TrEMBL record:
InterPro entries: Gfo/Idh/MocA-like_OxRdtase_N, Gfo/Idh/MocA_oxidrdct_glycsds, GFO_IDH_MocA-like_dom, NAD(P)-bd_dom_sf. It comes from Curtobacterium caseinilyticum. Pfam families: GFO_IDH_MocA, GFO_IDH_MocA_C3. Residues 7-133 form the Gfo/Idh/MocA-like oxidoreductase N-terminal domain. The keyword NAD applies. Residues 141-287 form the GFO/IDH/MocA-like oxidoreductase domain. This is Gfo/Idh/MocA family oxidoreductase. Keywords: NAD, Oxidoreductase. The keyword Signal does not apply.
Length: 399
């Protein structure tokens, strides 16, 4: 790594791989003070079309089939791991062993055991990392966190979250890796609720115990063609079993006494990506919906208007001013990933964990683990404590 160039290696050129690449490219524009020009060195994907796209569309200097070649390249300073969940552990542990700081997508592996192995490998190597908990970076969430942490909402009593998606609502959509326990781990628990649970911990604090119910509404799907793992894969007709939950609902208790509920579905008819989080306190509350990324509903005791006021995010809220000049002009989903890329690169340059960490990834996976235990026996389960470099606490470092 020279003073101004940082060599990027990408593992997997799917939806997230393309988005990470755009995010690195946007850094000099939106975070000029970092003083870095990302050099897209090499991308790995076993699918030839994906490799072709990496070079011709995304701008990588070369593309390879085997991810080890990315880790072995001395020009690669940082690595993005955007593979399906079942590959996370092998790739992340190898990246840590190679001494390469990495930015990995959530959920971090299939099970808490994968997340723990990744976390421990990173701690042994003494690396900084980033995990794809992108919703944290929405300026409205940053504003909500300030209101909660400053005490303006009073004592937090309860949190309500809901992550309702339609991405698997077609019963004839193919049986990709996302529906197999061996390759995905859990269903919506890891895929969607890990985001919501991370947000709840980021805004309010550590979740200490949980109980859950789950259901699979579409229990068979047509198998995709040989070797294809992408969600756009063509189905072949023969149907196979869906092995993880389409829907889950959680009750939980925070360590400090607040309580919460959160549910999620991937097979909704109606909502597209309706990811909401509401935080209620004794003197006010905030409500956010990802589909209205730039708005925060706020109700505070003593405000002039009774009930909820819509706050449109504005310069001063999170990193909004880096993207738009004034309230009402919207930021988008890609921008959240640019902020995540900036936090990752700044973490690497400063040697300080600023971005969501592998400890945060393990913390979310530990709640999912407790929820899965509850799905099996119907009981409440304590969540294993994570003592590593979590960045959800009150004194979390910021960029
Ligand atoms: N942060 C978010 O909001 C968010 C959103 C979507 C997905 N994700 C996560 O990102 C990860 C990837 O999801 P996606 O939607 O980009 O998947 P995708 O299906 O679009 O892409 C997966 C890519 O992995 C490649 N791949 C398969 N085997 C490989 C191997 N051995 N080596 C290298 N590449 C290989 C495939 O060819 C494909 O290009 C998952 O963990 C998912 O949970 C996160």
């Amino acid at each position: 790594m020279t003073a101004d160039t940082i060599g990027v290696g990408l593992v997997s050129v799917g939806w997230m791989g393309r988005l990470h690449s755009r995010a690195y490219r946007a850094l000099p524009d939106h975070f000029p003070e970092l003083g870095v020009r990302p050099r897209l060195v090499v991308a790995a994907d076993p699918v030839p079309e994906a490799r072709d796209q990496a070079v011709t569309r995304l701008g990588y200097e070369r593309a390879v089939a085997d991810f080890h070649e990315v880790l072995d390249d001395p020009a690669v300073d940082v690595v993005s791991i955007c593979s399906p969940n079942f590959l996370h552990r092998e790739m992340a542990v190898a990246a840590a062993a190679a001494g390469k700081p990495f930015w990995i997508e959530k959920p971090m592996g299939r099970y808490a055991s994968d997340s723990r192995a990744i976390h421990d490998a990173v701690e042994r190597a003494g690396l900084v990392t980033s995990v794809g908990f992108n919703y944290r970076h929405a300026p409205a969430i940053q504003r909500a966190r300030e209101l909660v942490r400053s005490g303006r909402l009073g004592r937090i009593t309860n949190v309500r979250g809901s992550l309702l998606a339609d991405y698997s609502s077609d019963p004839d959509a193919p049986l990709t890796w996302r529906f197999e326990r061996e390759r995905a781990g859990s269903g919506v628990l890891g895929d969607l609720l890990s985001h919501g649970l991370d947000l709840a911990q980021y805004l309010v604090g550590r979740i200490a115990s949980v109980t859950a119910l789950g259901e699979t509404f579409i229990d068979t799907r047509p198998r995709p063609g040989q070797g294809i793992v992408d969600r756009t894969a063509a189905a072949t007709g023969e149907r196979g079993a869906v092995e993880n939950e389409d829907y889950a609902a959680l009750l939980f208790r925070f360590e400090d006494g607040a309580v919460g509920t959160m549910d999620s579905s991937r097979v909704m008819r109606g909502p597209h990506a309706e990811y909401t989080l509401e935080v209620y306190g004794t003197t006010g509350s905030v409500r956010w919906d990802f589909q209205r990324l730039n708005e925060l509903q706020v109700a505070l005791d003593g405000q002039e208007v009774d009930g909820y006021v819509t706050h449109f995010v504005a310069p001063g809220d999170g990193h909004f001013a880096r993207f738009q000049p004034g309230a009402g002009t919207a930021m988008g989903y890609d921008d959240l990933k640019t902020i995540e890329a900036a936090q990752f690169v700044a973490s690497v340059l400063r040697g300080e964990q600023l971005a969501p960490s592998v400890a945060d990834g393990l913390a979310a996976a530990s709640i999912v683990e407790a929820a899965e235990a509850s799905l099996a026996d119907g009981a409440w389960h304590d969540v294993a404590r994570v003592d590593g470099r979590v960045t959800t606490g009150a004194a979390a470092p910021v960029l």
